[in-house]
Each structure stands twice: as structure tokens, then as C-alpha cells.
Amino acid sequence: MDINTVQDEIVDEFGIFDDWMDKYNYLIDLSKSLPIIDQKFKKPEFLIEGCQSRVWLRADMEDGKVVYTADSDAVITKGIIALLVRVMSGRAPDEIINNELYFIDKIGLKENLSPTRSNGLVSMIKQMKLYALAYQAKSRQK
């Protein structure tokens, strides 16, 4: 399934809910599906700067695909990173770098977050794309 198909699924899932309290509850439910980062990686070097909550993110390269694991100490933030991992994990670096994450605007996520959470969302996306860029550069050196 390509990255846009996953984004469209998310838009459809969030379209079921009429108000943002239901959408927040859905985000909390999604947080339970997050591939959790191994405890040994809950170190400062895996913390995402710019997030009000603590968010740890790690990426590995497996068979030419970037695989993310993450965790957060806040359930809504954990749900947000779970969405991002769902969309971007298991993809080639080029696909992560070159695709726009339009689902964020379509579900109204950014505009329904506090300014600090919205900044955190941008920081999470930036860090995930930086990992993809690093793996892309590394694969081109071979």
C-alpha cells in the first residue's frame, strides 16, 4: 500500500467523527498501536527537540525501508506519532522525503492542536524526514 493510500484511509477514519473530542479519543486509541521504542533508546539523543511532551523516535533501515519506533509520555502526542509512523514507516527514504503529508490538513489536526503541540507535530515530521535523508545519503554512498 502506498503512502497516499494510507493517508486516504486515515482521512476516512477521522471523517467518521463529527467533533474533536471524539477525534482526540480516537488518537488516544491509536496510541496503543504504536510500535514502541525499546527502553534502551529512551535516551536524550532520541528525544525530539521542540515537543512539549517527551517524544523518543528511532529509525532503522531494513531491506531498503526506513522503520520507525517511538514513544511519548503523553497519550495524545503518542497518538499523533502513531499516525506519523503508520504513514511513513516501512517506506523507502525517497518516498518519505518526496511525499507531502496532506492527511494532517485534511483531518484538521494541526488547527485543533495547541500551539505547542502543533510545533511538536512539525518537529516530529522534520525528525522523521531527517532520518530518511540520512539513510538516503548513506545508501547513495555505497
- State the helix count: 6
Q: What's the structural domain tally?
A: 1
CATH third-level topology? Sufe protein. Chain: A
Strand order of the largest sheet: 1-2
**Shape, please?**
globular
* CATH class descriptor: Alpha Beta
N-to-C series of helices and strands? HHEEHHHH
Low-pLDDT segments: none
- Rg, alpha carbons: 15 Å
DSSP E strands, number: 2
The proportion of residues in beta strands is: 5-15%
Mean pLDDT: 93
Overall CATH architecture: Alpha-Beta Complex
* Class derived from helix and strand content: mainly alpha
User: Largest sheet, described in full?
Assistant: 2 strands, antiparallel
Helix content: 40-55%
The end-to-end distance, rounded to whole angstroms, is 28 Å
Explain what the structure shows.
With 142 residues, this protein is mainly α. The protein has a single domain, classed as Sufe protein. Chain: A, CATH 3.90.1010. Helix content is 54%, strand content 11%. The chain contains 6 helices and 2 strands. It has helices at 3-15, 20-31, 75-88, 93-98, 103-106, 115-141; strands at residues 55-62, 65-72. The protein has a two-stranded antiparallel sheet. β1 (55-62) and β2 form a beta hairpin. α2 (20-31) packs across α3 and α3 (75-88) packs parallel to α6. The longest helix has 27 residues, at 115-141. It is globular.
